[in-house]
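Exercise 7. Given the encoded structure of a 525-residue chain, write a plausible sequence.
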């Protein structure tokens, strides 16, 4: 038997070793990729994974809408036995939805909070986690209206220690404005109220929301939520929103929609063409060019949007993973700095692929501020402005023949397409947009083979650059640049060649505009 002093020394060393290991794990640099964004599959065979929450030991709890809570290890292994299987009302958009882990989980409060529909209503339940199993410990909130649609479902703890939840309008827009209903609102339980033995009546933080599914706090900033716009039965489809939540704010649904909300709170960003924004997470850890950015998952859009903000204003919007994995819903930043995303192809509105649904792991690209540094403040981009060239007007006055006027018009269309593709390239890369100068040749416009060849080369460059952007969005290698085989000697200056030039220029402009609509998914507010 070891002497008492030796035993104490071993205990001290063991505890010290555990603390050192824990400190090392906590201070480990977040994972980053020097080769750009990297995407891999964590696990497959899930059924509509709706939300993700990480426990202090690095494992994740994943809710499946039919009523199961699954455990996924930090190594990506899916535990074969669910932590819980709950009786839920899984019709329509209901079921087991959001999940949140108690902020004091490791300090004697091993509770998990679940947002679900049951018995014709929405409840937030508190469950105790022990032995990899969840057991009901109490109902935190009850009596929230439920419906076949717009049940919302996100539940999150804020930086203030309070529990927040988003509720949908259940398909009845009037409830979002009704002071007597908890539907269509952002709700809050004061710190500590989530452990009350009896249900608590939540405070109303904001009203006038349709279906706010995404919820996350900007580092050092306010709460943001994503809100689905109308989808046909309650108005023309479109006008999805990203909203910066102000306590007491009214976000206007169903009274207003679009960018101009008049007396109501306007969105920080607006997608006029629906992407069905479902999940929202901020990249809070350093060492990445994404640090400080917001990531929004899209269901109908089948994509991930990376938003750059200046304060509460979105200044860049980059689409990622467009149609690469189908409908995307759940999203969370893991303790190691990677981003976990869940597909939702088995929710009745998608096209399941082999292995669906699945969890994806995204390693953000390296760069930006080092780990532990504050997120950078993005510079505000200039609007895309076409600065008129005073020489262009003189050039137009010099076009005298019909063919010369048509040539000048064809050149203007080609140059407009060139300006547009520059804007599209900047938007696709999330780069600042800069003013460009309208340039029309100041020389006397003569209908000649040389001028026709110049116009052709401009449009060919636009078509090639459009194809490069399309290939990058589809994760395909870019096409090779076209070889300049035509020379002035090959061009026959005449009406037939003029018609060819006009058609190519117009086709190039149409391609750019179609690509612009696909990338932007609607204009930002």
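Solution.
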């Amino acid at each position: 038997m070891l002497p008492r002093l030796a035993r104490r020394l071993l205990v001290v060393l063991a505890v010290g070793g555990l603390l050192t290991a824990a400190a090392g794990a906590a201070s480990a640099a977040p994972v980053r990729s020097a080769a750009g964004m990297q995407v891999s599959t964590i696990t497959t065979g899930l059924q509509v994974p709706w939300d993700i929450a990480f426990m202090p030991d690095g494992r994740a709890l994943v809710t499946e809408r039919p009523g199961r809570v699954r455990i996924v290890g930090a190594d990506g292994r899916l535990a074969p036995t669910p932590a819980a299987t709950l009786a839920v009302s899984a019709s329509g958009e209901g079921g087991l939805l959001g999940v949140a882990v108690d902020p004091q989980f490791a300090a004697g409060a091993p509770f998990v909070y679940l947002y679900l529909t049951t018995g014709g209503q929405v409840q937030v339940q508190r469950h105790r986690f022990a032995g990899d199993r969840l057991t009901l410990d109490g109902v935190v909130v009850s009596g929230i209206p439920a419906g076949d649609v717009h049940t919302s479902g996100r539940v999150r703890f804020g930086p203030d220690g309070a529990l927040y939840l988003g509720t949908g309008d259940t398909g009845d827009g009037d409830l979002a404005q009704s002071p007597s209903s908890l539907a269509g609102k952002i709700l809050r339980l004061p710190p500590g109220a989530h452990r009350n033995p009896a249900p608590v009546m939540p405070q109303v933080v904001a009203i006038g929301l349709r279906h706010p599914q995404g919820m996350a706090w900007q580092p050092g900033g306010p709460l943001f939520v994503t809100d689905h716009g109308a989808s046909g039965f309650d108005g023309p489809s479109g006008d999805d929103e990203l909203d910066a939540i102000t306590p007491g704010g009214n976000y206007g649904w169903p009274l207003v929609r679009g960018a101009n909300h008049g007396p109501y709170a306007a969105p920080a960003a607006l997608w006029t063409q629906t992407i069905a924004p479902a999940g929202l997470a901020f990249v809070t850890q350093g060492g990445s060019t994404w640090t400080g950015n917001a990531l929004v998952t899209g269901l109908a859009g089948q994509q991930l949007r990376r938003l750059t903000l200046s304060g509460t204003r979105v200044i860049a919007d980059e689409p990622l993973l467009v149609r690469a994995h189908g409908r995307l819903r759940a999203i969370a930043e893991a303790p190691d700095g990677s981003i976990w995303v869940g597909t939702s192809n088995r929710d009745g509105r998608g096209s399941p692929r082999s292995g669906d649904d699945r969890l994806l792991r995204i390693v953000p690209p390296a760069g930006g501020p080092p780990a532990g540094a504050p997120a950078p403040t993005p510079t505000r981009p200039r609007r895309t402005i076409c600065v008129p060239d005073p020489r262009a007007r003189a050039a137009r006055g010099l076009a005298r023949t019909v063919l010369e006027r048509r040539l000048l018009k064809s050149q203007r269309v080609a140059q407009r397409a060139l300006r547009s593709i520059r804007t599209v390239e900047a938007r696709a890369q999330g780069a600042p947009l800069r003013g460009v100068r309208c340039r029309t040749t100041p020389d006397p416009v003569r209908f000649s083979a040389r001028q026709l060849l110049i116009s052709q080369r401009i449009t060919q460059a636009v078509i090639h650059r459009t194809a490069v952007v399309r290939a990058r969005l589809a994760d395909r290698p870019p096409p090779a640049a076209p070889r300049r085989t035509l020379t002035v000697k090959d061009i026959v200056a005449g009406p037939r060649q003029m018609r060819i030039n006009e058609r190519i220029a117009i086709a190039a402009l149409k391609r750019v505009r179609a690509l612009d609509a696909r990338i932007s998914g609607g204009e930002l507010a």
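Remark. Residues 110 and 129 are 6 Å apart (CA to CA). Students should compare their own answers with the one above.
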